[in-house]
Amino acid sequence: MIVADRKNVQEIRDMIKDHDRVLLVGCGTCVTVCLAGGEREVGILGSALRMALKLIGRGNVVVDECTIERQCEDAFIDILATRVSEYDAVVSFGCGAGVQALAERFGKMPVYPGLNTQFIGILESQGVWTEKCAGCGNCRLGEFAGICPITRCAKHMFNGPCGGSRDGKCEVNPDLECGWQLIYDRACALGILERLGAIAEPHDWSTGLDGGPRKVVREDQRINT
Ligand code: SF4
Ligand code: SF4
Which of 133, 153, 203, 214 best tests ligand 1's pocket when mutated (most atoms within 8 Å of CB)? Predict the structure, then answer.
């Protein structure tokens, strides 16, 4: 899932304080699961925001809330179309894709981000999410026993550890598990340790973000118009 966390109330207040009618829009998908931008969080933030505006003498700003199932798909944004025209600004509690989808759809409406989008990750334990994939566009998990050296090794090393790993922890940050220790342990458990002896090819970064925004086209799914 996409993992995000909330901006603080003051930051959101300062973005919207000069507007008169503001709609907070939650998203019912990833950001609901990571407890950042779903219906419940938008409700709590809405109350906090009204209070914060009152404290700076802007208690007359109307702040309303709603949540749609998904902000990153235009079909789900349809439901907002008539409602948005009643406001002069929107705060999106979707991930960065959701914010931009709303901005594209409502070309004349200021759209502000309510969240800080962080990474693609998983729920590790109650209240803790960790990064697992950097979306490199050329997945090589099959070579590394199912553990990503790009995301899990702090130096993104492809051919073994850096030499600084101690007791399974990363030298860059002792709170982090060493990604290469994890790869080694899992390769041992799977009985495929000898595979790690082969020199791993340099990564093909041409599929990464550096060439600009990427696109996936599924010709078999397209509808010719
Ligand atoms: S190799 Fe690339 S696509 Fe696969 S998990 Fe790592 S960053 Fe993600
Ligand atoms: S200690 Fe491990 S995770 Fe940290 S940079 Fe070195 S090899 Fe990567």
Answer: 133
Cβ(32)–Cβ(70) under 8 Å? no
Q: Which domain holds residue 162?
A: 135-209
In 3D, which of 57, 131, 51, 48 has the Cα closest to residue 93? 48
Report the alpha-carbon distance of residue 96 to residue 30 in Å, rounded. Answer: 12
Q: What is the pLDDT of residue 225?
A: 63
Same domain for 109 and 194?
no
Other Cβ atoms closer than 10 A to 63: 23
Measured CA distances, 60 to 10, 20, 52, 66 (Å): 17, 7, 12, 19
Q: Strand 21-27 vs strand 89-92: parallel, antiparallel, or unpaired?
A: parallel
109 shares its domain with 163: no
Ligand 2 centre and the CA of 181: distance in Å?
8
For the chain, what is the domain count?
2
Give the rounded distance of the alpha carbon of 93 from its chain centre: 11
Query: Domain for residue 218, yes or no?
Result: no
CA nearest 91: which of 120, 61, 133?
61
Residue where a domain terminates, one of 95, 119, 143: 119
Ligand at minimal distance from the CA of 151 is 1
Task: Give per-residue pLDDT as tens, 3-32.
Answer: 999 999 999 999 999 999 999 999 999 999
